[in-house]
Amino acid sequence: MSILRYALIIVVMVLFCLPGAGSAEELPDVKTIIDRVDKLYRSDSSYGEMEMKVVSEHWERTVSMNIWTEGMGKTFIYITSPKKDEGIATLRMKTEMWNYFPKINKVMKVPPSMMMGSWMGSDFTNDDLVKESSLMQDYDSKLIHPEDEAPDYYYIELTPKKETPSVWGKIIFRVRREDYIPVTGSYYNEKGRQMRIMTFREIKSFGRRKLPAVIEMVPLNKEGRKTVIHYKNIRFDEKIDKNVFTLRNLQKRR
User: Fold this and answer.
1) Which whole-number Å values give the CA distances from 192 to 186, 187, 220, in the listed order?
2) Is the peptide bond before 212 cis (omega within 30 degrees of 0)?
3) What is the rounded average pLDDT for all residues in the chain?
């Protein structure tokens, strides 16, 4: 019995010393990755300057804007150019959203029926702005392994929870394994057809953070269309006046 016991121990030791034995990759907590994607451009507070270029087959339009954020639930956007759009502002407070149009001097709350409408004529919707930081809250997530998976990326599939109203049947994010920075986000309708793709590129350092400076959204059902957002500058944990995130600030002259 002693000889048999020793033989079994030796066999086990040999198996665990073989190349690859016991060295399977420990998969990360998918919630950790989604939390990183959610908070990519967020902090306790932030201030940024960016350009948004909307491209179609026959024309291009560039809009410059400043953006303030506080935590995960507050966003204020102010359009600085072109001249005809200067002064247009957007305020988001959790799931509610308002736009101000200086030409008519009117604040308009965005109703639920308009959430899938285009924001500022771009390929981003009002719903994108309202739900920009709620992936972990509104979607169930899991790691998947598609056939074309590259060794440097994780693929995460998000499906809306039963209580989440969404036009998307699923969203698939491809993120870098080394730092969880997203590379692409693919959006599918309820029939499984891919409708648009969001690409993150030109990773740069903004203070202590490394972020994609460019986000491109391409609707696959509109030939020649795309919207490109370029962050010129972004500063985190800036001290922001509490009055920034108010309806009164929407109409403030600057």
Assistant:
1) 11, 9, 13
2) no
3) 86
Domains of the chain: 28-250 (2.50.20.10)
Which residue type, as a one-letter code, is found at position 195? M
Cα–Cα–Cα angle for 213, 218, 220, rounded to 5 degrees: 160
Q: Specify the range with the lowest mean pLDDT, choosing from 41-45, 125-129, 139-143.
A: 125-129
d(C-alpha 206, C-alpha 108), whole Å = 34
Residues 61-76 pLDDT 10s: 999 999 999 988 899 9
Q: What is the pTM of this model?
A: 0.83
Amino acid at 22: G
CA–CA separation, 84 and 102 (whole Å):
10
The length of the chain is 254
Phi, psi (rounded to 5 degrees) for 194: -70, 125
In Å, what is the CA distance from 230 to each residue of 40, 42, 64, 90, 217? 15, 16, 10, 18, 12
Q: What angle do CA 148, 36, 40 make, to 5 degrees?
A: 105
Over range 154-178, report the average pLDDT: 91
